[in-house]
Design a protein that fits this description.
By secondary structure, this protein is of the alpha+beta class. It is built from 7 helices and 15 strands. The strands form 3 sheets. Strands 1, 2, 3, 4, 7, 10, 11, 12, 13, 14 and 15 form an 11-stranded mixed beta sheet that branches. The two termini are about 35 Å apart. The relative contact order is 0.22.
Length: about 240
């Protein structure tokens, strides 16, 4: 079976674990995902099968939309809810105007330092393994693109934002940097990927639904064809050329 599954990843398993389960259930040897979600994160995870794995290189350049809850006043070593608290401050002096102004400063091309708890490698070893061993190494900042950022809810000390961003953006780092800029610290409390290119969470299949479909033998109805993704990419190029 060649194509792409739009899976609504649950909180808990790694993206690699989801790929392994799809590989086992489908019997397809060539399976891969396009764009890692952290274990705590949920939402759209495109999983490619067969010849669909060949278009991962096209998918990863698509913009992604996230909804994130950021709690001000607390910093963690992982920049998210799974980490150890490293700092606590009083965020009560932060108002909505300050928050929106600081969020707007992230628009456009920015430079991010990847978190130590990430899958990036240093001398062949994933950074998160070094971090778990108590080792911190210097990371170079990298350019990333924030296309849109909007504060959609503010219930102090928790800000809920929606972000449309380009390849390589760490929402955890954005949350951490926001806290640093505000002077009170912050961490990523929760994260949902709402959209990834043509794949939308409203059409995504939960893993429980997918497991049931595998048992019933009709899981292929959830497959997006390789052509549908390529046509989407071609349409984007045509629009860009028109502009």
């Amino acid at each position: 079976m060649d194509g792409i599954l739009n899976i609504d990843k649950p909180a808990g398993p790694t993206s690699f674990r989801i790929v392994s389960l799809v590989k086992r259930l489908s019997g397809e040897r060539r399976v891969g995902h396009a764009g890692t979600l952290d274990p705590m994160a949920t939402g759209v995870l495109p999983v490619c099968l067969g010849k669909g794995t060949r278009i991962i290189k096209f998918l990863i350049d698509n913009p992604k939309t996230y909804r994130a809850e950021i709690e001000l006043g607390i910093s963690t070593d992982t920049y998210d809810a799974e980490g150890r608290i490293t700092r606590q401050d009083d965020p009560s002096g932060i108002n909505r105007d300050q928050l929106e102004s600081e969020l707007n400063s992230f628009l456009g091309l920015i430079y991010q330092v990847p978190p130590m708890y990430s899958a990036l490698k240093f001398q062949g070893k994933p950074l998160y393994k070094l971090a778990r061993a108590g080792i911190t190494v210097e990371r170079k900042s990298r350019p990333v693109k924030i296309h849109q950022i909007e504060l959609i809810d503010w219930q102090p000390p928790i800000a809920t934002i929606e972000v449309v961003c380009g390849r390589g953006t760490y929402i955890r780092s954005l949350a951490h940097d926001l806290g640093q800029n505000l002077g009170c610290g912050a961490y990523l409390k929760s994260l949902v990927r709402l959209r990834y290119g043509l794949f939308d969470i409203r059409e995504a299949v939960s893993f429980l639904q997918l497991e049931d479909a595998f048992r019933c033998g009709d899981w292929q109805r959830f497959i997006y064809s390789v052509d549908s993704v390529l046509l989407h990419e071609e349409a984007k190029i045509q629009v860009a050329d028109f502009k």
